[in-house]
Amino acid sequence: MIEIATSSTTTTLVIAGDLDLAERDQFPEIAARVVGLRRQLLVIDMCRVTFMDSTGAAFLISLADSGRKRGGATVLRGADERDLFVLEVCGALDLFRVDHDHHCEQSDVSTGATPVHLPQRHRPS
């Protein structure tokens, strides 16, 4: 699932689940919406990404490249080493700013618990 949120200067994509070949049918519509918003900053929240393959990486790369062509920037928030490795293998990691200070949070709806830190998605600085 991919959700889009906007502010006056930023578009934020919140991605949950797999970002892979099985999800590619939704990529063109989402990319068109993001590009159409024409915000200078795109933040991609990957805290809840469970798996990303080269198809998912290509989607992220196309978003970053579109933003860069307009003079914008793309930030990866909550990307773990595995996600960054895929982008590096694709030769595209330099298209992104990586937020190394972000701490991913998740609320437990079933218990009503407050958000907690998920260390498997946090990368130390």
UniProtKB/TrEMBL annotation:
Entry's transmembrane regions: none
InterPro entries linked to this entry: STAS_dom, STAS_dom_sf
Region (Disordered): 106-125
Database matches in CDD domains: STAS_anti-anti-sigma_factors (cd07043)
Entries under Pfam families matching the protein: STAS (PF01740)
Domain STAS: residue ranges: 1-91
Source organism, top-level taxon: Bacteria
Name of the protein in question: Anti-anti-sigma factor
Source organism phylogeny: Bacteria, Bacillati, Actinomycetota, Actinomycetes, Micrococcales
